Amino acid sequence: MSGFHIAIKKPIERLGLVNVYQIRGFLFLAALCLYAFLGSPTPDSPGFVEVFIAILLLASIGFSGLLFALSVDIKAPLWCSAGQVLLLYGLSVPVFMSIIQGHAVIQVLRDIFPFLFLLLPVFMNELCRRYPDIFRYILKGVLIIGIIFSVRAIIDIQYQIFNIFNIQAGDELTYFENAPTVLFTSLFIIGYVGQYFIENFTFKAFMFFIAGCVLTLLVLFPVALTAQRASLGYVVFYVLSLIVIAFYKAPYRAFVIVSIVVALLLPFYSVMELMFDTLLQKNALVGVNARFDELLKVWSEISKSLSTLAFGVGWGGSFESPAVAEVSVNYTHSLLSSALLKTGMIGVVLTVFYLLGLAKLLYGFLRCNPVLSLALAGTVFIDVFLYASFKSLDFGLVLLLISSYSFSQENVAKER
Prior knowledge:
- It is built from 19 helices and four strands.
- By secondary structure, it is mostly helical.
């Protein structure tokens, strides 16, 4: 940054006339809102909406953010330095391997964009560090996406129409209900309203809690309709964990909340029983969807030569997956097995270090904010090991919540 730019920019910021970091935060929130109402997690044919979202995201990241992401800062936290190395590796070696393997350009691009989304915390590091309050923008944007995607999923599932325009749906699969933001939103809302009720214990807090429960059920409805066993199972685990924490901190108030929840759920006992039977039937039919067999198949693909073992088959690579009846597909149901297939042993090791760095952050604020940390932990775990929905902007946003919250907490500690 030039001395002239600094000399002009700092006095203007002190006068309060403009704050470039706030503007970039607003642009990021605008991108998320546009994505919520008009975008989709895995568009088959990206168009003007996706281009405009990309422009807003790039504007919010800024040139300084891109420059930071493409460098390697060994003094940075593990997740950041590992992410920077992973970014440089992913933009070079797997691209070269895809050229050697002769993969289709469109398939290569369909892998590169999710890879860039995965590293959203690295791209946004500079902005989050300079403007820690951006966490609020990111959290609001993620919650908006989760709620709107849930509503759009219900409309798609039930009526096969889009939004409020009564336009007949096309053949494209939107996968709104599989978006990580939907699961995170349902978890965070129920946890937040429960915590608010316990801390305040007023009639206003009670009404807020009831409204939050209704909203949570709305967000979870498409997840239940599609019988997502891992997501629904973690919802139960999450609620029980928070109840245990609540009984430890405020047993009387926790007892009141549990009583209210039980009373609200009793009329839906037959529905829950039917849902439970459906989940058991699905589990009996598909089990774990051949996840282990899928991993073995990936290993057999990359172990054919030393080059593919080290570097993978490159972006756009495909294999005959046992999880989908040996059909040739270019995805796996786990982030780690996907990284192994496309980027080899080197890529998967870098990915593991990147995720471990973020997990370390997550563990660090487990005690101070269990509502947020447990909601993030379950969402990340499911998409890393069980679902293919890591190939979306939503997954990058969930990871970004972890890194941005850490900067926010550091800022709070400094102000104290």
